[in-house]
Amino acid sequence: MSVTAYQQAQREGQSAVRAAILDVAKSLLIGEGPAALTVRRISGEAGCSTKVIYTLFGGKDGLARALWLEGFARFERRLLAVPDGDDALARLRAGLDAYREYALEEPEYYRVMFQGALSGYTPDETAREAARRTFRLLVGVVRRCLDEGRLRGGGEAEIADALWMAMHGAVSLEISGFFDPAEAEQRYRLLMASVLCPFLPPDERTA
Fold first, then answer.
1. What pTM does this model have?
2. Residue ranges of the alpha helices (H) in the chain?
3. Residue ranges matching CATH 1.10.10 in the chain
4. Maximum Cα–Cα distance across the chain
5. Which residues contact 53 (CB under 8 A, 6 or more apart)?
6. 34-69 confidence digits (pLDDT tens)
7. How many Cα atoms within 13 Å fall on the side-chain side of residue 200?
8. CB atoms within 10 A of CB 129
9. Fold for domain 64-204?
10. 207: pLDDT strictly greater than 60
11. Sign of the CA dihedral with 168 first, then 172, 175, and 178 last
12. Residue range 102-108: average pLDDT?
């Protein structure tokens, strides 16, 4: 007899149950669209009762909010896991790589967070703050680069915005299948280097 995602998660505790149900929900959402995001359908796929979902999330609207928050929580943990060494610019570049790695590891959550997969969902202030907190991590590393003279000629928000726009465009195209996987990483690094180049000290710019 096969073990359901819910039964497996039960052995690990309530947080694992919550994560397992959210993973089922996001897979249904991406695979079949918003119409599949019903309490009954999710409970059937997860192998739990509808009562479990109502207890944990309060229904469909609560599930949508939880998907958004879970995606950004995982994203934040991934960014915070980047080693914080002495070289601020190396730390920034590692963070840019981590952004792409997260999108490739969690494409369904990335689509929920940044590509409007949750049709009709409007984030509340708490949810929007979760998104802003991840952006502030990038701003903080850029600020450190400016303070240490590793970047110059722009403001922290300006540089962070340009990097975020470039990262989002690149990974959105990649996870949608527009790039050959063997070339995507090289293209991504080329784009990041191009965005950073105008803000590097002259002796660090490449031809």
1. 0.84
2. 5-10, 14-32, 39-46, 50-57, 60-80, 88-105, 107-114, 125-147, 156-175, 181-196
3. 1-58
4. 65
5. 21, 39, 42, 43, 59, 63
6. 888 888 999 898 888 899 889 889 888 888 899 999
7. 16
8. 12
9. Tetracycline Repressor; domain 2 (1.10.357)
10. no
11. negative
12. 93
Q: What are phi and psi of 124, to 5 degrees?
A: -85, 180
Tell me the one-letter amino acid at 115.
Answer: Q
Residue type, 10: Q
Residue range(s) in the chain whose domain bears CATH number 1.10.357.10: 64-204
The amino acid that residue 113 corresponds to is M
Domain 1-58 matching CATH 1.10.8: the answer reads no
Q: How far apart are CA 16 and CA 14, in angstroms?
A: 5
* Distance set, CA 83 to CA 87, 94, 131, 143, 199 (Å): 10, 8, 21, 17, 23
Could you report the per-residue pLDDT of 107-136, keeping only the tens digit for each?
989 999 998 888 788 899 999 999 999 999
